[in-house]
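batch_manifest entry 22 of 60
target: Low specificity L-threonine aldolase
source organism: Rhodopila globiformis
requested by: lab member K.T.
priority: normal
notes from requester: please return tokens only, no post-processing; we will run our own comparison against the previous entry in this batch. if the run fails, retry once and flag.
--- input ---
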Amino acid sequence: MAYAPVRPDRSLPPVRVNLFSDTQTRPSAAMKAAMMQAELGDEQAGDDPTVMALCERMAALTGQQAAMFLPSGTMCNQIAILTHTRPGDEILAHESAHIVASEGGGPGALARAVVLGLHGERGMFDAATLKAALREKRRNAPPQTLVAVEQTSNAGGGSVWPVDLLAEVLTTAHDCGLRIHMDGARLMNAAVAAGVEARAMTAGCDSVWLDFTKGLGAPLGAVLCGSADFIDAAWRWKQRLGGSLRQAGICAAACLYALDHNVDRLAEDHANARRLAAGLAQVPGLRVETPETNLVFFDTAGAGLTADALAEQARSRGVLVSTMGAHRVRACTHIDVDAAGVDLAVQVVAEVTPAGAPFTIC
Ligand SMILES: *Cc1c(COP(=O)(O)O)cnc(C)c1O
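--- output ---
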């Protein structure tokens, strides 16, 4: 069976502006220098000083007791699910969640858990929706043990769960005996956009993780945080899945560098996202969702164009975007894109959108 390639065709003209994903950022020279200087040990033996420093820092940042370094965010989600649930358990998550749509059916394949998709605007749901989805504890019902929230919600438009809404969902989950897991792939984008400490959003969660390969610009790595008992249990799954590492400090050093240098600047990505949205909104036929962080979604239906067609034509002029649905395009700002790149992208999208009038940058 053939799958559509994720990578764009390399025979195409060079990429001038890459808005495909913040995962495509490259480590800067300074970040690489920090990696070269990292003190290293054996991560699997709990003895890599740089990984240990990163984990301590992440536990403090999220208001949790302990933390564990992992190669990827997907592994954080899957290990958290494996640790929190037993086969046959039901996880409640937004229907558009990454664990539902983009992890290869991992919850079913690995934890043998089922996921119940909840509705809600912009990838979020409220306590009433959660309550309405709770089942009576009957022998023939799946045990509901875990609620998963995504901060920011990716498919929800890079939306930020307000602290109050999170607290309400968290309290409801706990009152009803469920644990709560936060997929914090872009947690720092949420914290910067909301102007709060990350721990204000994460302290009550039973597990939470942050990805370093997105807006933070590291080449790989994610850190899963939780109680000391949770992290102990999670370590067994890390070992079973082959996620225990050796001189991983070389990668943890990039993550520490990112925490020191690349968090506050996420505000620039958010400003560039707003600039991009404002530019795209001027292109006739495009319907642009108001960005809250670094993800800009727009709908091409009004321009008589599919998302794939727009992406292909933009690509032929050096601008990379991704698609999420028949008419839904995602453009993602990040550390390797500046305001001039954003303006160029707007110009190219205007040129390839049929209803688009000749466009000038103002
Ligand atoms: C990217 C992403 C993941 C997966 O992270 P990887 O590091 O790419 O495995 C999980 N959840 C969300 C919301 C994401 O955006």
